[in-house]
Design goal:
One of its GO terms (molecular function) is metal ion binding. This protein is an alpha+beta fold. The protein has 11 helices and 11 strands. The strands form 2 sheets. It has a 7-stranded antiparallel β-sheet. The structure holds 2-oxoglutaric acid and fe (ii) ion.
Length: about 325
């Protein structure tokens, strides 16, 4: 999708202060495939702080074992809930549990609930994400801006962020399933994925669809989503990824998602684009809020968290359909 040159530049120019090139080597899911297949589609981050994985494990264990605590947390955001555990009953959906936070949702959690979850790690988790946002988000945004020659700061004034914890726990409805998180492309500008050392994350080679590259379990990965692809006129590629489970092995991750401001029109911020976009995109008919909503339905279906009434809508169930919306082909 994006030109190899821009993608290469994304990796190289992010390098000076962000990429750890020394110990981390990328290997391919296919035994002899070349890691260069990634063409710089992702960057590796040397983070200032690591997630508090011990606290994250405690928090998931506590919420899973205590439905009252889980309901109290979910009541802070009744529209969708915060702790998602559909995989306890649903063996076809992604076999993981998640805790979905954001600065806005954080402020809705009552003092009583916050206090009751403090000793199970909630505060540590929130300060980790706030710290990461403070230390890395604007730098990554400006580096992405430099490699694409497009000023992304003008459409990221509100810092629209989401924080997600994932628990790929063997105690789900389908313990032998290798599907931790089905293949998908994140909707926003970029995501930072922190891992607890357990492998499982795989990236699809942007120029060799169907070839999946295994990412080492200790790497912290920055990858771009659909909004970056559209805003930069295809100069930054949106990267498909997935998580495979190793039966019997628990894996934890923490993900920080950054997206443009909700009212921003999703159209290239340049007339010189690398690809041809759909007339809806060029015409500025799609804004971030609408796109997030549409994408959200798609990922909630995959994750088994879609409300019954929404489940039958049948639209946008595939990455392909999003691609059609964006590229019109
Ligand atoms: O758990 C991971 O490593 C990745 C999760 C992910 O891609 C997502 O939640 O969008
Ligand atoms: Fe993702």
């Amino acid at each position: 999708m994006a030109s190899p040159i821009a993608a290469q530049a994304f990796r190289q120019r992010l390098a000076p202060n962000l990429i750890k090139t020394s110990k981390t080597t990328l290997t391919s899911a296919k035994s002899h495939a070349n890691p260069e297949l990634l063409h710089g589609a992702i960057a590796l981050l040397n983070p200032t702080v690591q997630p508090p994985f011990k606290a994250i494990r405690h928090l998931f264990d506590h919420l899973r074992a205590n439905p009252t605590a889980a309901s109290a947390l979910n009541n802070a955001y009744p529209k969708r809930g915060i702790f998602k555990s559909a995989a306890i009953k649903n063996g076809i959906a992604d076999q993981k549990f998640t805790i979905d936070l954001s600065p806005a949702r954080d402020s809705l959690i009552s003092e009583a609930t916050r206090a009751s979850l403090a000793s199970y790690g909630l505060n540590d988790v929130i300060s980790f994400f706030n710290n990461t946002a403070e230390n890395h988000v604007s730098t990554i945004l400006s580096q992405l801006g430099k490699v694409s020659s497009i000023d992304l700061s003008q459409v990221h004034k509100d810092l629209n962020m989401n924080f997600r914890l994932c628990d790929y726990n063997p105690l789900t409805a389908n313990p032998t399933s290798s599907n931790g998180c089905g293949e998908h492309t994140d909707y926003g500008t970029f995501s930072i994925i922190f891992q607890d050392g357990t492998p499982g994350l795989e990236i699809e080679a942007p120029h060799a669809p169907g070839t999946w590259i295994e990412i080492p379990g200790d790497a912290t990965v920055v990858l771009a989503g659909w909004c970056a692809f559209i805003l930069t006129g295809g100069r930054v590629c949106a990267v498909r990824h997935r998580v495979r489970r190793i039966p019997g092995v628990r894996r934890l991750s923490a993900v920080l998602f950054v997206a443009p401001d909700l009212e921003v029109k999703l159209k290239p911020l340049t007339e010189f684009t690398n690809v041809e976009f759909s007339k809806e995109i060029i015409g500025g008919e799609v804004n971030v809020s609408w796109f997030k909503d549409v994408m959200g339905k798609r990922w909630r279906r995959r994750e088994g968290n879609l409300e019954v009434a929404e489940r039958d809508e049948g639209i946008f169930s595939q990455d392909d359909e999003i691609r059609r919306l964006v590229l019109g082909a």
